[in-house]
Design brief:
Elements lengths: L1 H39 L3 H17 L3 H17 L3 H19 L4 H16 L3 H17 L6 H17 L2 H18 L5 H16 L3 H15 L5 H19 L3 H19 L3 H15 L1
């Protein structure tokens, strides 16, 4: 009888222990998810509260992977609210934790590198940002054969940094690679593809390659001129930029037509972009005077 009781007690313990662990996981997940939802809704105070509670649960339960995810989210929140030095500390801690949990070549480690790189860029620490972006690109290039949209996103971030630094050839090279990936990995009308093609066109203009830039702008216009939301925004931007290119080449009538089409999109489709609409009206007036 005693042996039966011992077996029963052992079984009871083995069943109950995973439940305690699962309860901690579930509580962390609930708090972290609430934080993400509050962030999406613009309730940043509540988001920070939920993230801090999730961190406490993760710390008490020694949930190191989960802690790294919440640190990452909290760091992005701090960045969004302009608390850049706090964000730097939190995102650095997230990266160090992911190094220890996942290793140096894991995609989650690359995600933290990419996020910290964006913060370093915002702080003007371009050398550190370049190193972090480049490491993220290197890791993502090995993940799933290197044809993923997350790799394209990291390439776009690195290209934007290069553009800001005036390294236009490097920017163009990375944007070209990102577009090739997006063309395969995303649907033809995806906003990320349109945005990247738009950026590549702008870089081409700065490089003095206006003919190639026009082809890129027209591709974005075709993608978004009949759409709404982000695609319409990208099309309106492309129309405005192409009009500016035409104006530089003294094609004033064509520039005027393009500005008018951009105004129509800003006013009737995109909406809520009064500054962009005002700028385009001003650009149109400059062509007609």
């Amino acid at each position: 009888m005693n042996s039966i009781r011992i077996i029963a007690l052992t079984l009871l313990i083995s069943v109950c222990l995973p439940i305690v662990s699962f309860s901690q996981d579930a509580l962390w997940l609930e708090l972290n998810s609430r934080g993400m939802k509050a962030y999406e809704d613009g309730d940043l105070d509540s988001a920070e509260k939920f993230y801090r509670e999730a961190l406490e649960v993760a710390a008490n339960g020694e949930l190191r992977a989960e802690m790294s995810a919440t640190l990452n989210n909290l760091g992005l929140l701090f960045k969004a609210t302009g608390r850049l030095e706090e964000a730097a500390s939190v995102l650095h801690n997230a990266l160090e934790l992911r190094f220890s949990v996942y290793g140096e070549r894991h995609r989650y480690t690359a995600q933290s590198m990419n996020n910290l790189g964006r913060l370093m860029e915002a702080l003007g620490r371009y050398s550190a940002a370049e190193q972090l972006y480049s490491q993220a690109v290197d890791i993502y290039s090995e993940w799933r054969g290197g044809g993923t949209s997350v790799l394209a996103g990291a390439l776009t971030n690195l290209a934007s940094l290069y553009e800001r630094m005036g390294r236009l050839q490097d920017a163009y090279r990375n944007l070209s690679r990102a577009v090739i990936i997006y063309d395969v990995a995303l649907p033809a009308g995806h906003p990320k593809l349109a945005s990247t093609v738009n950026t590549m066109a702008t870089v081409l203009v700065r490089m003095g390659r206006g003919v190639e830039a026009e082809a890129m702008y027209r591709r974005v216009i075709e993608l978004g001129v009949e759409e709404r939301g982000v695609l319409a925004f990208e099309a309106a931007t492309a129309l405005n930029n192409l009009a500016a290119l035409k104006k530089e080449n003294c094609a004033y009538a064509e520039a005027s037509d393009l500005y008018e089409k951009a105004i129509e999109l800003w006013r009737d489709v995109v909406g809520g972009r009064s500054q962009d609409l005002a700028v385009t009206y001003n650009n149109l007036a400059g062509v007609r005077t």
